[in-house]
Amino acid sequence: MISTTDIVITIGYIIFIVTIGLWAGTRKKKAEQTSSNDYFLAGKTLKWPMIGLALFATNISCLHLVSLAQSGFDSGLLNGNFEWMAAFTLILLAVFFIPFYIRSGVTTLPDFLERRYNRACRDWLAFISIISAVIIHIAFSFLAGGIVLETLFGINMYTSIIAIAALTGLYTIIGGLRAVVVTETIQSIVLIAGAIIITIFSWNKLGGWENLTTVLQQQDSMDKLSMIRPIGDESGMSWISIFLGYPILGIWYWCADQTIVQRALGAKNEDQAKAGVLFCGFIKILPVFIFVLPGLFAYALYKSNLMDLSSIQTVVDGKTVVNTKGIYTLMITQLLPSGLIGILVAALLSGLMSQIAGALNSIATLSSYDLYKRFKPQTSDKKLVTVGRWSASIALLISIGLLPLLNQYTSLFEGINDIIAHIAPPITCVFLLGVFWKKASGKAAQYTLWLGSFLGIVVFAINKLNPDTLIGKIPFMMMAFYLFIACVTIQVSCSYIYPVVHTEQSKKLYWNSFWEPLQVKGWPGMGNYKFLSALLLTIMVVLYCYFK
Fold first, then answer.
1. pTM of the prediction?
2. Could you tell me which residues are beta bridge partners of residue 314?
3. For residue 11, what are the contacts with CB-CB under 8 A and spacing of at least 6?
4. Of 151, 177, 326, 516, whose CB has the highest number of CB atoms within 10 Å?
5. CA-to-CA distance for 166 and 284, rounded, in angstroms?
6. 15 — phi, psi (to 5°)?
């Protein structure tokens, strides 16, 4: 049972974050508050530490804490690949994409696509980006947060979600990106601290790494410590699925998704943006150890009779089944003393509120710049901010309405990646070919986005309506790769049918060679993006070799 102390800590934290968010978003002069540049991009004043922490906070939500612990319990470290592979795509963002985004001065990524391709590409990406932000970044986060708060406090899931939505929306809609980034910086620290606490307590309860390996050997489950599984592994995430499929998901998510990249677009300059992105890459090493590993410790504790799972067990056809969605909540209540439980709940709320805040700000930006301003180009800054605020409010309501549908997934983390696998391929394709191939034409990109998205929807529908078909049996990571190959085929073919006619802008938005971006000098010393990229790459290779 949650103590009064923990409830006070939780409520105090929520009040603190909302107050900080409102202060950060409204402390500027009134004229600056209604400036669209200040509202949507924090006046382009962000520096690398804040960018890195904000990127991490926007990425990591309550969903990650809950679902990565669930995956650690169910399959071990395997789903940690989604965290570590992100480091490679963040290097791509820093080295190959950031220079174009910052130099072109774009406010949104659909704006970038218009400059590289045409207006139709901008419209489609804006529409898809808003839909994905509502479903992936907001609705799934609400669902995970609602499940946790209902389990811990006994509050009706929808009641708690509506309350969190109102409070997060308050400072986000009023304060814009500045409020979002300031609160995300604080929330990243709280989130990481909370995750470290649960890791330490689960480690101590089990008795350390040696006891973990002993239990896994007894259960014939040593594969749970492996990040790389053989081809044909029943998880559907063999090494080939990860190394072929993840880049398709990761490049869209980290390099072409407005919700994520908007933090870098608000950077003071290109070097600050690159350093912030790579800083996030280093932080992404942590989740395997502080989000996934605690779930594996919970599995070992359960098998050692040191953890009671009766509250999340049900009997189905005479067999005891564990609903592992609630494993993180049980770890909090069974492993932590009063007081620390409140801190962990604050960490969960940090993840929930930060991702929702980031998504709302990107929806506001996309709706204002890429949709409303198109039809009313003379719109004032004040009006754009107003449109953005109303768009964010509507997005909150829609996301709450989607919750019953999304709750049908057994694993929320797999659910979110399943959806991304069908959204990402055409977007990843047009961004990659646009930046690395000068012959990629606007008309070809337009058809690729349209046909690729339609193909993804059809495949997703077949998979859900009749999972016993050949398509339904393909792991979602490999499906993402196959859809990407289809999109590349469409775009390359159409680029020869409809040859590119470059504008003065588009001529400056592709690399002539793979090595060209590495000729940019950057900061001197250890802060140089080339040194940081090489260091991060080396660390990741070493980690994969150890946990293979």
1. 0.86
2. 321
3. none
4. 177
5. 29
6. -60, -40
Question: Given CA atoms 227, 232, 234, 240 in this order, what sign does their dihedral have?
Answer: positive
429: exposed, middle or buried (Cβ count in 10 Å: 0-12, 13-18, 19+): buried
CA angle 139, 141, 145 (to 5 degrees): 120
User: Which amino acid belongs to residue 535?
Assistant: L
Per domain, the residue ranges of the chain are: 4-408
**Mean pLDDT lowest for which of 28-32, 166-170, 437-441?**
28-32
pLDDT for residue 34: 46
E strands in 134-176: none
Residue environment code for 46-60, b if the CB has 16+ CB neighbours within 10 A, otherwise e: bebebbbbbbbbbbb
pLDDT in tens, 222-272: 889 999 999 888 888 899 999 999 999 999 999 998 878 887 888 888 999
Between CA 419 and CA 140 the distance in angstroms is 11
- Do the beta carbons of residue 79 and residue 71 sit within 8 Å? yes
Amino acid letter, 540: M
Tens digits of residue pLDDT in 322-377: 778 778 888 888 888 888 888 888 877 777 777 787 788 788 888 888 888 877 88
Q: From CA 150, how far away is CA 311, in angstroms rounded? A: 13
Question: Residue 537: its pLDDT value, please?
Answer: 96
pLDDT of residue 98: 93
For the segment 403-436, what is each residue's pLDDT rounded down to a tens digit?
Answer: 877 777 666 667 777 888 999 999 999 999 999 9
Above 70 in pLDDT, residue 43? no
The span from the CA of 430 to the CA of 444, in Å, is: 9
- Paired tokens of 280: 């996030």
CA 161 – CA 149 distance, rounded (Å):
9
Q: How far apart are CA 350 and CA 187, in angstroms?
A: 5
Check: CB of residue 214 under 8 Å from CB of residue 303. no
Burial class (CB in 10 A: 0-12, 13-18, 19+), 255: buried
In sign, the C-alpha dihedral spanning 93, 280, 103, 182 is positive
3-state secondary structure 504-519: CCHHHCCCCCCCHHHH
Lowest-confidence region among 46-60, 179-193, 252-266 = 179-193
Cα gap 467→534, rounded to integer Å? 42
Angle of helix 412-436 versus helix 239-250 axis, rounded to 10: 70
For the segment(s) 4-408, the CATH number from 1.20.1270.10, 1.20.1730.10, 3.30.420.40, 3.40.109.10 is 1.20.1730.10
Residue 304, classed as helix, strand or coil, is coil
pLDDT at residue 177, as a whole number: 63
CA atoms within 13 A on the CB side of 240: 8
The burial of 315, by beta-carbon neighbours within 10 Å (0-12 exposed, 13-18 middle, 19 or more buried), is given as exposed
